[in-house]
Structures are given as C-alpha cells and as structure tokens.
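Structure request: G-D-S-L family lipolytic protein, Macrococcoides bohemicum.
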Amino acid sequence: MRPNYIHLPKLEEGHPVNKLRESFNHRNEVILYHNDPVGIVFIGDSITDYWDIESYLQLNNGKRMINRGIGNDRTQWVRDRFTADSIQLKPDWIVLSIGINNTKTLDVDQSNDNQQQIKTRILEDIEAMIVMANENNINIAVTTLTSTNRPKLEGFITRSKLVQIINNKIKQLCIEHDALFIDYYTQMTETKDDIDYLRNELTDDGLHPHVFGYDIMSKVIEATFTDIYPIQLKQR
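Returned structure:
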C-alpha cells in the first residue's frame, strides 16, 4: 500500500519552483515508503540545489542526507513546501539556506520601502519555518545569506549592505528560537572600500559557489556540527 504523504501540486505555469516539483513528490514518497532514516535535509535555492553534498560530507550514523534545493526559490515558496519537502521526511536536522533571490527586485528599486519589505518577508518566513521545525521536534539550522560579486548590477551595493543586516537578524532569530546558526558569510566574503563581495576565487558568476566555495561551506558545516551531530568531511 502506498504511503499517505503530502503531495504538492505545481504552481502557476512558468513558476520557477515547478521544475523539481514532480521529482520531489516521487522522491519523498519513496523515502516514506521505505521508511528511510533521514539525518539531514538541506533545503533552499540553487546554491543548495547545485551542491553535490555527498561528494563533500558524510554521516557516520547510517542515515541519509537529502537535497531539496530549487533554483530561483525564495523564502515564501520554500515556506509553502517546507512541510512536504522537509518536515514529513522526519529528519534529525534541517539546514535552511534561503533568501538571496528575494533581493532581486533591488536591481530595479533600491528604495527604503522595498528594502524593508524584502527584509520583513525573509525574516518572517524564516522564523515561521524555525517554529514549524520546533513544533515537530526537528532540529533546525539556518545559514547566512552569502554575499554576491556582481558589481555591475544596479542593486549591488544596496544588496551587500542589506544582506549584512539580514544575516544579523537571522542570528538573532536562531538565538531566540534555540536554532543552530551557520555562518558561511564570514569565510566567503572579502571587503573592498567598505563593500562586501563574495570572494572572486570562489565563484564563476558572482553568485553561485563553485567547487572551492562548496569546499568552504562543507568545512563550515562540519565545524558547526562538531559535538552536535556525526557529520564529517569525506576524505579525498
């Protein structure tokens, strides 16, 4: 008998999260049917999606790591799929990495009102997901937004400053709700003329990490979970 599970429909035609919806529905059903023990679900946008996590990290308790990243995702859309793609899999931990795509509108509108709307949206959604995890007795870790290195975009400087503010607020939310805070930002960022940039040697396009960027992220994960959960870097 097939399991009773949360099966999400696609959103409106052309919505960016549709591309993996059917795949995730099928994969979630298989995990639940086989009662696979899930250690960590990584959920977020393309930075998570492009990360071949098991090439970098391994769990020492026989449980699985599941990637539920979708390119172009935003906090409100992850919030909508959070139960289906993470909570119902009953992981020991959820690692939530989301928010940078919410800042895309800064390239056409750098007003204070738009900055406030972006910040509020991101923080309200992240807080809601932390609460959802807590209510289901699932540990949750929230990562910083990473910096960018696309100075030709109109909103680059505004985005750089807003990301710092949002990251500080995420850290506060983690403290308030007893969530784990994961700081990718500090080790992946360099400052030039008081503006923070994603380190040039970690990216090809100024947004997504390549292999060296993911190497740093993996080391941060291992260090953050030391003495908390049995995850470690794979030996090469």
